[in-house]
Design brief:
alpha+beta, Thiol Ester Dehydrase, Chain A, 2 helices, 6 strands, about 15% helix, globular
Length: about 140
């Protein structure tokens, strides 16, 4: 099931400029999601990270992955209108720079859940090449 920006905003509480996914390619509620983020030169963080050689901050790549996982989690029946907060990040590895003009291919699969807390395995790619992997912990509010 594909989602456009309007439909994403019906699931996630994030809004521009902090909505970091542009398009959901597919998802299974409560299980996994795949999304895209088009990295644009005019994004405000590039003014200082870094002048003359813009690189997307790793924390924003992690946030885009978390929002992708949020689609899987918050689209699940009974989770409508809730918020998924970061509980932690484990095993984060950055393998390639992400720069303006890139399209981040984002995937997150929910792997464990116990009550309102759970984890997801996440991977971000650019043109099929791994840019970042991480295990994300979330807490539902």
């Amino acid at each position: 099931m594909e989602l456009n920006t309007e439909q994403i905003q019906q699931i996630l509480p994030h809004r521009p400029p902090f909505l970091l996914i542009d398009h959901v390619l597919d998802y299974e509620p409560g299980v996994w999601a795949k999304a895209l983020k088009h990295v644009r030169a005019e994004e405000p963080h590039f003014a200082g990270h870094f002048p003359g050689q813009p690189v997307m901050p790793g924390v924003l790549i992690l946030e885009a992955l978390a929002q992708t996982g949020g689609i899987a989690l918050l689209s699940e029946e009974g989770n409508e209108g809730r918020i998924a907060l970061f509980g932690g990040v484990q095993k984060a590895r950055f393998r390639a720079m992400v720069v303006p003009g890139d399209t981040l291919e984002l995937e997150c699969r929910l792997t464990r859940r116990r009550g309102p807390v759970g984890t997801g395995e996440a991977i971000a790619r650019v043109a099929g090449k791994v840019a970042c992997t991480a295990e994300l912990t979330f807490a539902l509010q």
